[in-house]
Structures are given as C-alpha cells and as structure tokens.
Amino acid sequence: MPDAHFAEPRLARIYDDVEGDRSDLDAYVGMVQEFGSETVLDVGCGTGALAVRLALAGVQVIGLDPAAASIAVAQEKPGAERVQWIVGDARSIPPAEVDLVTMTGNVAQVFLSDGEWDDALGASYSALVPGGRLVFEVRDPAKEAWLEWTQERSHRLLDLPKVGPVETWVELTAVELPMVSFDTHFVFGSDSRTLTSSSTLRFRNRDEVVRALERAGFAIDGVRDAPDRPGRELVFVALRP
C-alpha cells in the first residue's frame, strides 16, 4: 500500500509543487545519455517527472507506480501520451526488454523485507536486455539523515498555485534500525484540513546492497556519489551481464 503522500489525490496533486526543484533527476537523465539507453523502465515513477522528461527527449518509457493518484497526475503532463503508464508494484513489472531500469528518490528504500527487495531486483533484472543497467540511489545510513526529520528542521509554509497556503513538516516517529518511520503533515489553509502521510524506510549499507544485487545476478558497474546530496547518498549502477 503506497503512502498517502502519493496515494491520496489531494496530496498527489501538490507533490510536485512541494518538492520544487528536481535537479536530483539530472543525474539520471545524464546516465540515460551516458549509456545510450533508448528504452527505460521507471519503477516508482510517482507523478512522472523523470518519465515525461525522458519521453519528450525521444526515449521510450514505461512508468510504473502503485499509487493511482500519482499516475493520474503524471498523465496530465505534457509528453504523458508518449509514456506507457502502469499502476502496480514491482511484481507488476511487465515482460519487457529495456536498456535501463531506474528507481529515483527513496524508492529503493521502500522495500522493507529482504523478500520484497529481492523480488524487485529480480523483476528489474528480468526486464533488462543483456548489457542493460539498473540505477538507483539510497541514503547512507552512517549519515543518519533521520536526525533532520523534525518539525523544527523541516517546517515550511508554502503558497502553492491553485491551492493557496500549505503548512508542512516531518516528524520522526521511530528509529529501529534498519527501519526508520516518520510522518509528513500537511495543513491546508483554504479549509484548515490536515492530512498526514506515514512512511517507513529501510536503510541498507553499501555491502548489503551489493550482496542483494549480486544475489539477483547483477554485476556491479559502479557506485557513485549522489550529486544533489554529496557524501550522503550512494548511486548504484548494476549491469545485467
């Protein structure tokens, strides 16, 4: 079940405005060009920011996400008609022959159990052509990103187009490593309604990720620094031999 942040229609519609600058996607666009990828499967595509960007550049894209509300937002964007949209989880990855599978943001951390993670990696492997790659990022648990997930450090008051004022903040609810749970709160000034999205992420260290990739049959093609959060996140590039 996807978090309310993505599945609740009112929250899905403000997601892009709340997130703001998506320069974090530049690295993925760069890798599409670097690897010469002509077909891309974007797992956990959300509101389609990367999928439509690639499609408008001439890439053949499949966007997959379990949150129908987020896919609905994606389908309204320019270039959306060029993307094949699928509502479903990693088990819904279709038989495909793509050059690149992407998981942007914290998508790789939403697979909480080893079984879920192995299934997602196995399905990604099956969707790739030989020589294709899987790329994704994870937060380095040693950097303890969750220490910043407090109301004091995360509070924002936004004035959003067509919506008006929205107050939002993050509240850490549990740290039971490797699991970290938190709530994201949204208060809409137009009607004072409050919506809360509860999330849990699993923090895996570099060695754990490498072992899981190798278990799925991947070869490690590189581990890079995330350009938008240098020193805090790792970008894995895995090759289907």
Features:
241 residues, Rossmann fold, four-stranded antiparallel β-sheet, 8 helices, alpha/beta, 11 strands, 2 domains, seven-stranded mixed β-sheet
Q: Could you walk me through the main structural features you see in this protein, from its secondary elements to its overall organization?
A:
This protein is of the alpha/beta class and 241 residues long. The protein folds into two domains: 4-140 and 204-239, Vaccinia Virus protein VP39 (Rossmann fold), CATH 3.40.50.150; 143-201. It has helices at residues 4-7, 9-19, 26-35, 49-56, 68-74, 114-127, 151-154, 206-215; strands at residues 39-43, 60-65, 83-87, 98-103, 128-139, 156-160, 164-176, 179-188, 194-202, 219-225, 233-239. The strands form two sheets. The chain has a seven-stranded mixed sheet with strand order 3-2-1-4-5-11-10, sandwiched between helices. A four-stranded antiparallel sheet has the order 6-7-8-9. The radius of gyration is 18 Å and the shape is globular. The protein starts with a helix and ends with a strand.
What order do the strands of the largest sheet run in, or round the barrel if closed?
3-2-1-4-5-11-10
Proportion of helical residues: 25-40%
- The portion of residues forming beta strands comes to 35-45%
Terminal CA distance reads 33 Å
Number of helices: 8
